[in-house]
Amino acid sequence: MNNVISDYQKWKQQGQDLRVQAKQAMESRFRELLTQAVEIAEEYRSDFGGSLKPPPGVTAFRYKAQAKAKAKKAAQPKAVGKAAPREEPKVQNPKVAGLQKKLAAAKKKLEDAKAAGTPTRVLEDKIYEIEDELRLAGQGQ
């Protein structure tokens, strides 16, 4: 009877060791696959300009896009040279001027979001609303 109990305890210990090894192997494989998925998504975004959608069973797949670091590096050479003065048309209506500033800021946010590969629908809607307000403000003059 002692022999059966010790055999069982050895088997149980081997099972626990195997379980730990399997857990580590699965976690490692999972990280490798996610890293590969991120690389593919980045390549797709840079080549085709859009973001890949995960399959319907996946509810969330988030990663930090590398585009921000690249965008900052690309922006530095522009800052080195002398900045060209902005040629904005002078608007007598302060409401229109404010809307134009809002529109410029929203368009910049949209460009940043596209570069980062984040959803842009809300920003596109906001730009449309601001442009609509500008059209209405222009008719009132």
Descriptive overview:
With 141 residues, this protein is mainly α. It is built from 4 helices and no strands. The longest helix has 47 residues, at 2-48. The protein is rod-shaped, with a radius of gyration of 28 Å. It starts with a helix and ends with a helix. Mean pLDDT is 79; it is low at 77-84.
Q: What is the succession of H and E elements?
A: HHHH
Helical fraction: over 70%
Mean pLDDT: 79
Report the structural category.
mainly alpha
- Enumerate how many helices there are, as a single number: 4
Number of strands: 0
Rounded to an integer in angstroms, the radius of gyration calculated over CA atoms is 28 Å
What is the general shape?
rod-shaped
Low-pLDDT runs: 77-84
Quick synopsis:
With 141 residues, the protein is an all-alpha fold. It is built from four helices and no strands. Helices cover 73% and strands 0% of the residues.
Keyphrases for this structure?
mainly alpha; rod-shaped; 0% strand; 141 residues
Write the layout of secondary structure elements.
Layout: H1 2-48, H2 67-80, H3 94-116, H4 121-139
Helix pairs in contact: 3-4
